[in-house]
Design brief:
By secondary structure, the protein is mainly beta. Helices cover 11% and strands 42% of the residues.
């Protein structure tokens, strides 16, 4: 099942997504005619794992981590599927990175890896954008608009074996599978839950496969996780 949020003239609504329609208790809402998609959840934080694919580590010249390496993006970083991503005027090196995301379904802490599927509502897609020429990690990663997320939450998917592809301006840039992760999805959610209390809607992104790279104004970035969905955003001035 796919779950989505829609911004209508009367405010946000949430429900089941089917063929361009968000079905709620109050009736169906057609995407485009009745409103536009919002990010599919309202997280208090996005917990993002870095350096989680061996080939990416080699490309970037990093050391292989002994445990998950993470940073946090705030809610203001979110951008919905189909909405433009504004290229910040203070950077000349804006990059994309296509990532799978777990959306937490209930308040929880100290979750074992075996119990992670019970606390995850489903999965969605993130473009973890990075302003590489900024000195601090927060300035690089946590700015407004740095987290395109969506288009919906898929509740029925196995996160451990999903093909991923990212295209920029129609050219394939990333082509991988989640089985290549150094730390698996359940291990990562469990690890973070021992340090933070998760709230419903919180997000855990599992890192980018090989070949994250630069984007320019005018580029369209499309990130597809098989069985989950395709996140599409245009980069604008």
């Amino acid at each position: 099942m796919r779950l989505a949020r829609l911004l209508t003239p009367d405010g946000p609504v949430a429900g089941r997504y089917e063929d361009g329609v968000v079905i709620t208790d109050d009736g169906p809402y057609e995407v485009g005619r009745d409103g536009r998609l919002l990010p599919p959840c309202r997280p208090s934080a996005l917990y993002c794992i870095g350096r989680n694919y061996a080939e990416t580590i080699e490309q970037m010249g990093y050391e292989r981590p002994d445990e998950p390496n993470f940073f946090i993006k705030p809610p203001a970083s979110l951008v919905a599927h189909g909405q433009p991503v504004r290229y910040p005027e203070w950077t000349d090196e804006l990059t994309y990175a296509g990532e799978l995301v777990a959306v937490i379904g209930e308040r929880c802490r100290d979750v074992s890896p075996d119990d992670v599927p019970d606390v995850v509502r489903g999965y969605t897609v993130l473009n973890d954008m990075d302003a590489l020429d900024q000195e601090s990690l927060t300035a690089r990663k946590a700015f407004d608009g740095s987290a395109p997320l969506g288009p919906w939450i898929e509740t029925d998917v196995d996160p451990t074996d999903i093909d991923v592809s990212t295209t920029v301006a129609g050219e394939t840039r990333q082509d991988a599978n989640t089985e290549l992760m150094l730390f698996g999805p359940y291990e990562i959610v469990s690890y973070l839950s021992k340090r933070f209390t998760f709230e419903p809607g919180d997000c855990v992104a599992f890192g980018s496969p090989a070949n994250p790279g630069l984007v320019e104004p005018g580029d369209r970035v499309e990130i597809t996780y098989e069985g989950v969905g395709t996140l599409t955003n245009d980069i604008v001035e």
